Amino acid sequence: MASIINISSAKADNNSEKIWLSPPHLSGKEIQYIQQAFEQNWITTAGENITEFEKEICRVTGFKYAVALNSGTAAIHLGLILLGIKEGDEVICPTFTFIATANPIVYQKAKPVFIDSEPDTWNICPDLIRKAIIEGIQKRKKPKAIIVVHLYGQPALMDKIYPLSQEFDIPILEDAAEALGSIVSLNHFDKLADISILSFNGNKIITTSGGGALLTNNQSFADKALYLATQAREHFPYYQHSETGYNYRISNISAGIGRGQMEVLEERVKQKRQIHTFYQEAFADLPAISFQPEPVDTFSNKWLTAILINAGYGVTAEQIRYILALRNIESRLVWKPLHLQPVFRDCSFYTENHLAEQFFKSGLCLPSGTQLSEDQLYKIVNIIKSLY
Ligand SMILES: *Cc1c(COP(=O)(O)O)cnc(C)c1O
User: Fold this and answer.
1) Could you tell me the distance, in angstroms and rounded to a whole number, from the CA of residue 297 to the centre of ligand 1?
2) How far is the CA of 66 from the centre of ligand 1 (A)?
3) What's the rounded Cα separation, in Å, for the pair 92 and 320?
């Protein structure tokens, strides 16, 4: 067993170029689409870039309709509104995710019911969803929607979650913010959700600088999403509004970036998976390190390579994060479970063995940028290996 490393003696390395967790990686084509928008003077919330970007999203995901928006969070918010989530409703939500998954539930004055992870993918546990639904029905408070997240790109166990949605007639809102390019159960992730959302934030597998999209096969959902995203303006020669809307539409400039990025999505997935394989091979002989699993019938875009560090071997995840940071390398602890967040202290939580909390204690996301060089990858791996 390695001795506990002496953190106070570790030295900062300010000379090498910073390695980020997952920075934007442009294709070079983005600027042409932006240029085009300038030339056409279509630089706001309508134009060819938006239309073509949405078409491309539909082609890649298999959904019939895509509405491009200015964030993934906005897409979740509109998705919940379309599913009729209102004040006092309960919405099933994984605890092990980014807070943006759950915040829109609160925007609607509804209540998240947090569900622990399962061990096979680290995503929301189907057995606990069933338990929460049954207890909800017994309290005459049947949950109104199930939010599923595909964490770090790894698809959740949709084969088990989808039948629950059917059995209890509860719609699924799929937060695929991290999972563009992933495949669920050898189907595209689209087939099983009523509404799916994507994020194009700067650190996601592709970016629009900031943006998101709502995906659906239901035309009335798509029409309503667009209407709500543009201040719920109705078709009159003057401004007419019967409902409260939002300013959630994407700009034609951002969509231009998205168009250029869509052209390299497949390549980015390949690169992310290569990075993951590199780490897996490099740490194969280190029993302290294990990886987020990828069941055989799923395909992850490996947006971030997430590992668990068994502190029994002498080093904790936080110590590794800290040592890497001193060497100018950004890694990140996995999400802190939402049921532990002070802002959600009053929410209910279903668990059997507190898996998400265990992941939080020992989980780390390694640098996964698609521009990482082999030298940089070796550097990261060697720093970690030297601790054992
Ligand atoms: C990034 C992310 C979001 C939010 O997307 P934004 O575009 O940043 O609003 C939502 N859910 C998950 C799981 C995410 O990782």
Assistant:
1) 25
2) 17
3) 34
Counting from 1 in the atom list of ligand 1, the atom nearest the Cα of 212 is 7
- Residue of 22, 178, 206 to mutate, ligand 1, most atoms within 8 A of C-beta: 178
Q: Which amino acid is at 171?
A: P
Residue 196 structure tokens: 């799916």
Rounded CA gap, 215 and 62, in Å?
Answer: 9
Nearest to 27 by CA among 261, 378, 268, 342: 261
State the residue for tokens 């390299």: 264
For the chain, list residues with pLDDT below 50. 1-9, 186, 188-190
> Is the CB of residue 350 less than 8 Å from the CB of residue 115?
yes
HSE-CB of 127 using CA atoms within 13 angstroms: 7
Please write the tens of the pLDDT for every residue from 258-269: 999 999 999 999
Q: Is 197 helix (H, G, I), strand (E, B) or coil?
A: strand
Atom of ligand 1 minimally distant from the CA of 151: 13
Separation CA 173–CA 7 (nearest Å):
43
C-alpha dihedral, 238 to 240 to 246 to 249, nearest 10°: -40
What distance in Å separates the CA atoms of residue 91 and residue 196, rounded to the nearest whole number? 15
